[in-house]
Design brief:
Layout (H helix, E strand, L loop, with lengths): L1 H5 L4 H8 L3 H13 L3 E4 L7 E4 L3 H15 L1
Length: 71
C-alpha cells in the first residue's frame, strides 16, 4: 500500500514501516525485485529507491535519478 500512495520507498522507510533491521529490509526488498514486483532505481546507498514494476512512476523516478546524477 505504501508504494501505491507514496510512489516509492527507500530501505530506511521500509525498515520503519516493518520494524526490521537494515539487512532484513535489504533482503526483503531484493526478494521483491527478484519476484518482479518492484524495481530498484539508483545504485547502492542513499540514492536507491524502489517503485512498483511497470508503473508510470517507475519511469519518472528513473528520469529524476538520472538528472540528479548528471548534476
Amino acid at each position: 500500500m505504501h508504494l501505491k500512495v507514496n510512489k516509492e520507498i527507500t530501505n530506511g522507510a521500509y525498515q520503519k514501516l516493518n520494524g526490521v533491521s537494515r539487512s532484513t529490509a535489504a533482503r526483503e526488498l531484493s526478494a521483491l525485485v527478484k519476484l518482479g514486483i518492484i524495481e530498484r532505481h539508483g545504485h547502492t546507498g542513499r540514492g536507491t529507491v524502489y517503485v512498483l514494476k511497470g508503473s508510470n512512476d517507475s519511469e519518472t523516478t528513473q528520469k529524476r535519478l538520472n538528472e540528479t546524477i548528471r548534476k
